[in-house]
Structure formats: structure tokens, C-alpha cells
């Protein structure tokens, strides 16, 4: 059984956090789903992440990866095998269909996807646009002598 959390007090007392609170509220309402296929989420750098999914029994052509705004969707659908081709005495490799959804933070982009030895690796990177990065603003005085060049606003190259 899953405990429910009431976010109403946070909505009443916080400003500008509505998207985060809506995401938490939505995550709380999502029913628990099957944990197949198993996956790992790794942080490989300051703004770099990787999702590794064990998709044994599926081929590269059976997998689809799509990014729709802030959602990453990984889908697996195995092509049907002819009925009379093989008779299974025991079938232990799960080749069933699946759909995994991952909520992504803003400015997250998929940079690479590789399939090797039954492991799907999806590389993601947070790419903050230059316009949204912190920038240093030069302060000038009203007593700057005439003819002296006033420094312009410089964009800071380092991310916050």
C-alpha cells in the first residue's frame, strides 16, 4: 500500500514552485508498475546522466526511444515469431512488451543511445541555453569621464 501525501499546504505557501509541486503530485498518483525491464540511472558528471536498461531477448529493431518535451519514453515490442518455427520447452527470457517513462528536468537532452550485449544505454546531458546562464553585470559610476569606454555586460562562461 502506498501512502498519500497532501501537497495543498505547499501550494498555499510557496510561489514559483508550482511545476515542481505538480510533478510531485503526479508522481504520487502514478500507480506502481511492473519493474521490467530492470534499469539503472547513473550520474556520470556535473550535467551528465546515463540510463542502462537490461533488455535481454529484444533486438535493436524492437526498441524505440522518444523524447517529448520533459518526458523520455522507451518502448520495447518484440516482433512476433512464426507459430510453427520453434517449440519452447521452457521460456525463461522475458521478451515481453514494455513502456518506461522517465520525467526529465528542463533542458535535458538525449545525446546518445547504444545497444550492446542486451544492454540499452541512453546518455543524457543538461544543456542550459546561454541566455539562461548566470552572467556578470559591470557596475559603472555616473562620474565616468567623457570619452572613456564603459564596459558592456559580459556573459559568464561558467555554469552556476
Structure description:
The chain is mostly beta strands and 160 residues long. It has a domain at 34-81 and 91-128: Immunoglobulin-like, CATH 2.60.40. Helices cover 11% and strands 32% of the residues. It contains two helices and nine strands; from the N terminus they run ααβββββββββ. The chain has helices at 8-13, 18-29; strands at 39-43, 48-54, 63-68, 71-76, 98-103, 108-116, 119-126, 135-136, 154-155. A four-stranded antiparallel β-sheet has the order 1-2-7-6, with no helix packed on it. β1 (39-43) and β2 form a beta hairpin. The longest helix has 12 residues, at 18-29. The two termini are 40 Å apart. The mean pLDDT is 79. Residues 30-142 form the SHSP domain. Keywords: Stress response. Pfam families: HSP20.
Keyword list:
160 residues; mainly beta; Immunoglobulin-like; four-stranded antiparallel sheet; 11% helix
Secondary-structure topology with pairs:
Blueprint: H1 8-13, H2 18-29, E1 39-43, E2 48-54, E3 63-68, E4 71-76, E5 98-103, E6 108-116, E7 119-126, E8 135-136, E9 154-155
Antiparallel strand pairs: 1-2, 2-7, 3-4, 4-5, 6-7, 8-9
Amino acid at each position: 500500500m502506498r501512502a498519500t501525501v497532501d501537497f495543498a499546504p505547499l501550494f498555499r505557501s510557496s510561489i514559483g514552485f508550482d511545476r515542481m509541486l505538480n510533478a510531485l503530485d503526479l508522481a504520487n498518483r502514478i500507480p506502481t508498475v511492473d519493474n521490467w525491464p530492470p534499469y539503472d540511472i547513473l550520474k556520470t558528471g556535473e550535467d551528465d546522466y546515463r540510463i542502462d536498461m537490461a533488455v535481454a531477448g529484444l533486438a535493436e529493431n524492437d526498441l524505440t526511444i522518444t523524447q517529448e518535451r520533459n518526458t523520455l519514453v522507451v518502448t520495447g515490442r518484440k516482433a512476433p515469431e512464426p507459430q510453427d518455427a520453434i517449440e519452447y520447452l521452457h521460456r525463461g527470457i522475458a521478451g515481453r512488451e514494455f513502456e518506461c517513462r522517465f520525467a526529465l528536468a528542463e533542458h535535458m537532452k538525449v545525446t546518445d543511445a547504444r545497444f550492446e550485449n542486451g544492454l540499452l544505454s541512453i546518455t543524457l546531458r543538461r544543456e542550459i541555453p546561454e541566455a539562461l546562464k548566470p552572467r556578470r553585470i559591470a557596475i559603472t559610476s555616473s562620474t565616468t569621464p567623457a570619452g572613456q569606454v564603459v564596459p558592456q555586460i559580459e556573459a559568464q562562461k561558467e555554469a552556476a
